[in-house]
Design goal:
The chain has 2 domains: about 1-10 and about 25-60, no CATH class; about 60-100. About 0% of the residues are buried. The chain is built from 2 helices and 5 strands; from the N terminus they run βββββαα. The chain has helices at about 60-85, 95-100; strands at about 1-5, 5-10, 30-35, 40-45, 50-55. Helices cover about 35% and strands about 30% of the residues. With about 100 residues, it is an alpha+beta fold. The chain is elongated and about 70 Å long. The longest helix has 30 residues, at about 60-85. The strands form 2 sheets. A 3-stranded antiparallel beta sheet has the order 3-4-5. The protein has a two-stranded antiparallel sheet with strand order 1-2.
Amino acid sequence: MRELKRLFYIAVHKGKAPFEIEENISFKTIREDKNKWVKIEIKRYEIEDEIYLLCQSEKKQRKEKGIKTRIDRLFLEKLNRLSQMIEKGRIKNFEHSQNLGINL
């Protein structure tokens, strides 16, 4: 938090951290509920007069993994479809495949 005219405020930064993050850092668990699959961990960094909290959530990590898995699966399905169309002689060149909506 930064004091400005005796007021305190918190700013959220979702970009790249303005400091180096160690590989094997130890996080502090601030909330955990195994029944709801919730685990939130933080690591505090102080740089000059700024305080940064690096946060990670088990639920968010699972969500990101699910999205990546879905994207990978869709890519492989499109690749399979494209391969079958090439084998059957339905596609002669790359531009034709793009016109059919098979963008890889």
